[in-house]
What does this fold into?
Amino acid sequence: MSDHVVLRFDGVTFEYGHKKPLLDEVSFSVRKGSKITLMGQNGAGKSTLFKLVTRELVPTSGRISLDSAATVAIGRQTIPRDRLDRTIRDFLAEVFPGKDYELDKRAKEALEVVNLDIPLDRALAKCSGGQQARILLASALIQDPDILLLDEPTNNLDAVGIAHLTAFLSHYDKTVLVISHDADFLNAFTDGVLYLDVHTRKIDQFVGNYYDVVEEIKAKVEKAERENARLEKTIKEKRDQANVFANKGGKLRGVAKRMRTLADDLEENKAVVRREDKTLPSFEIACPDVTGPIITIKSVSLMRDGEPQAVPVNLVLKRNTHLFVSGPNGIGKSTFLESVASGDPERVEIADGVSIGYYRQDFSTLDFGRTVFDTLLDASPEKNGEIVYKTAARFLIPSDLVQNEVGSLSEGQKGLLMLAKLFLEQPSLLILDEPTNHMNFRHIPVIAEALDAYKGTLIFVSHVPDFYSSIRIDEVLDLESL
It folds into this structure.
């Protein structure tokens, strides 16, 4: 890592329209060859900051300086919906800076780096979530950028994929900025952290590996809280003295005034403490009391040697049964969940009257053009606006976003909206595809606790061991072993 600065923010403020700024006079610098983690709560503006670096957005005020010779590429969280009908080749061609005749060779090299062997003429819509995650990373790598921006690159990746990406980044000699909630992944290569505080809208910059920085932040907060407690005690004493002197009248009123002024000065000297990210409060997804078999799984469609193959399965799930579906990226886990959610008669038989709640990893069950309010109102049996606002707040969606379109939310907020929707729907069959993707790590144990206590029929997929190991699992469907 050199001392040469390739990226600098000087007093950068950014706001959408006339709303409160997401960034407020933010300043930091990034040195050439450094590997930096960008931390912050869901909705704090991390992805927005990346868009400012790529010049997709322009700051409201302040200056962003990039090394004149530096190129930038971003590996985004999701493939845009209007691109899903394109082939992998066409998707990579959109960003490839070289000659057309070089595309296939360079595309295969980029896909090899992300450990993905797949035909270039395959449509993106036919790729699994894990394969799409690798393709998004390849679309950034194929540009050979000087500054690589990665937005939640481990989402949808299995353990092998994460290990491969970690090894690559550990030996990568260019500048990398990463948004991720995967602590172990980050600690393997991070040498600094930018912390974006959703409350102050400022950025604190720290040097060191991820775990060291987390401890440094914790110590800094504790020190500031101790100093503020000491000042609070002194302020109270000065105000109490001011009240005593004011009541005595005469010249002592002047002393009382000076005491109040001193107390006000001390108040201004209190440190602005970085408040901890809000954690999702405990919640429970209720469900109807349904008797008898809920769902019979007859077969699954697996991808083997690039071709779908139907494999018979005889699995009956009743109420209060949790099924964990496992297997490597690309084998057909999401396809299986989709067939269950759609009630595909070739694959499953679902009992009459069973209500289904489906959390898709790409949020395609949400209408991005509708408002948060209308989305939750439709899910609420009571059709009550007050309940909508209370539920949104419970799932950390602030009131000023409730009338916004779903598409304007961050990916993490979309995930919270999906949970809020399921909370209101109270389904008897709950299907979840990677529900921790995009989530603040503080929320993950709370979500696991809610699913562990769920009394309905649960079918879920996850690649996060700390998450799925915290949930009661009654049946396992390992697609790789079928």
